[in-house]
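Class prep. Write one:
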Amino acid sequence: MNHGNNFITTIDYPDSWVTLWALQVLGTLEVLSILQLPWTLQVLRTLQVLRTLHVLGTLQLLWTLQVLWTHQVLGTLEVLRTLQGLWILQVLWIIGPVWSRG
């Protein structure tokens, strides 16, 4: 595991979705080998799209994909209630790398 990203595992939310989405933005597959999730292929497919959107720096599209992907994986709209708070954390985290690339 890349120890430079250790803070990901310290986010105190009950959903493994937070960790999955964060790792997708970072473009790493390391965590997938220990998650043993039945929708690993879907995660990999989403990861490829997220990489493209991240390169474009299109945060609005990233957020839209995040909502759609979360709804599809969890099969419920209940999680949307927590997305706004999580999205703020993710934007703060993404905006640095995107802007630093210039």
Summary: Residues 1-14, 27-40, 53-58, 74-82 have pLDDT under 50 and may be disordered. Helices lie at 16-26, 32-35, 40-56, 59-74, 80-100.
